[in-house]
Write a structure and sequence with these properties.
Elements: E1 3-12, E2 15-24, E3 34-37, H1 50-58, E4 62-65, H2 84-87, H3 92-100, E5 105-110, H4 112-123, E6 128-134, H5 142-154, H6 160-165, H7 172-184, E7 204-209, H8 218-226, E8 231-236, H9 243-246, H10 248-259
Parallel strand pairs: 3-4, 3-5, 5-6, 6-7, 7-8
Antiparallel strand pairs: 1-2, 2-4
């Protein structure tokens, strides 16, 4: 697999954003590129080799970036606002569009990045050619909260925060708190994608692991039923919250087949 990977760093207000792109030798620059949105503890590096394989299989340029406060982007000196899922579309994501001068795109998000991707598809209906969500949340469920509480306990064990710091230098505690304390906050319990999904006009692929520890099957079913455009729902038997890492070939095939007819 011959993949050209490039790294970027650019300004956004008083911050800087780190991004990376992957492009195969057979890439078709006429096709809409794919932009990846990471999860609550994620970063560009934590996508691992998924973007390279995605670029090779779809023949599209793939971009990923670290949101402010994550990975190699700037430290975030503020707590996450309760509307952070929705506002990323007009903040960090908009900076990426402007920097790379992207007029059309496909957005693919994992977990909370999936919710952000839905908000992005709604915000840019003329530019977004397709939406792909993997293990996305539609709303805050008890299973979501139970999974987060369990993860919070795990991170109190020796060495766990240090493991996170490998991917979020000098930001690990902020990253963990941004996830656990935001989602567990009583003020966040009514968050959902109800207002966003009817504005998603592009084709959507909704992927979810049958055993996802952060959401019941009601989550992907509500996303699938809620979008305005044509949609495809894929519940993957025996998989959990990381289908693209648990069964990458299966997920890559689903995405490639879904995008085959999309320019």
């Amino acid at each position: 697999m011959s993949i050209l990977a490039r790294e970027y760093q650019f300004s956004f207000h008083s911050y800087f954003i780190y991004a990376k792109s992957w492009q195969s030798a057979e890439a078709n620059s006429e096709l809409a590129p794919i932009i990846l949105m990471h999860d609550s503890l994620g970063s560009v590096a934590l996508w691992r080799d998924f973007p390279a394989y995605l670029a090779a299989q779809t023949k599209r340029i793939v971009y990923a970036y670290d949101r402010i406060g994550f990975g190699q982007s700037s430290v975030n000196d503020q707590s996450l606002a309760l509307d952070f899922v929705m506002t990323e579309a007009t903040h960090g994501f908009k900076a990426v569009l402007d920097y790379f001068d992207l007029k059309h795109f496909i957005v693919l998000g994992h977990s909370v990045g999936g919710g952000m991707s839905a908000a992005i598809a709604a915000e840019y209906p003329q530019c977004c050619k397709a939406l792909v969500t993997i293990a996305a949340q539609y709303e805050v469920e008890e299973r979501t909260l139970a999974g987060i509480r369990a993860a919070k306990q795990t991170f109190q064990q020796a060495g766990q925060i240090e493991r996170l710091a490998k991917y979020h230098p000098d930001k690990a505690q902020w990253v963990l708190d941004a996830w656990t304390e935001t989602w567990l906050a009583p003020a966040f319990k009514d968050w959902n994608l109800r207002e966003v999904l009817p504005q998603v006009e592009c084709p959507s692929l909704v992927i979810h692991g049958e055993q996802d520890e952060y959401g019941t099957l009601a989550q992907p079913q509500q996303i699938f039923a809620g979008v305005k455009g044509a949609a495809e729902l894929q519940i993957l038997s025996g998989l959990y919250h990381m289908p693209h890492k648990e069964q990458p070939e299966q997920v890559l095939t689903l995405i490639s087949e879904f995008l085959a007819g999309i320019a």
